[in-house]
Specification:
It is built from three helices and five strands. The chain is of the alpha+beta class. The radius of gyration is 18 Å and the shape is elongated.
Length: about 120
């Protein structure tokens, strides 16, 4: 069965492959930092603005306060697991939104994905 038959007779595997069109580089929440230039082209350089981890300070009585800087998670880690289990984008791409007008058709095509 092909992908252009409005979902009728599409197997579970084919339905999972449909969200592989929703690439992180085409999402409006993704960005690259200049510090990740050695990774550019590999797909590991993209970060997600929706997956922000705030600054934490851990108080250790021996060493003193230990500060961990705030950061954005990598898109590849946010898309790794299913979105049903965590508040993440997941394999389905629930947080995915088109970066430009030329990707609107993908948003319409995959409009049946659940939003968290």
């Amino acid at each position: 069965m092909g992908l252009f038959n409005d979902g009728v007779g599409v197997s579970q595997r084919e339905r999972a492959d449909m969200s592989s069109e929703l690439l992180c580089k085409n999402c409006k929440h993704s960005f690259r930092e200049f510090s990740s230039i050695p990774y550019w082209g590999s797909g590991a350089e993209w970060r997600c603005r929706k997956a922000f981890v705030p600054e934490t300070i851990e108080h250790d009585p021996v060493v003193g306060p230990k500060k961990e800087s705030a950061y954005y998670k990598r898109c590849s880690l946010v898309r790794l697991h299913d979105a049903e289990y965590k508040n993440e984008c997941g394999k389905q791409g629930t947080w995915w939104e088109p970066k430009s007008k030329k990707f609107f058709f993908l948003d319409i095509k995959h409009s049946d994905r659940s939003t968290a």
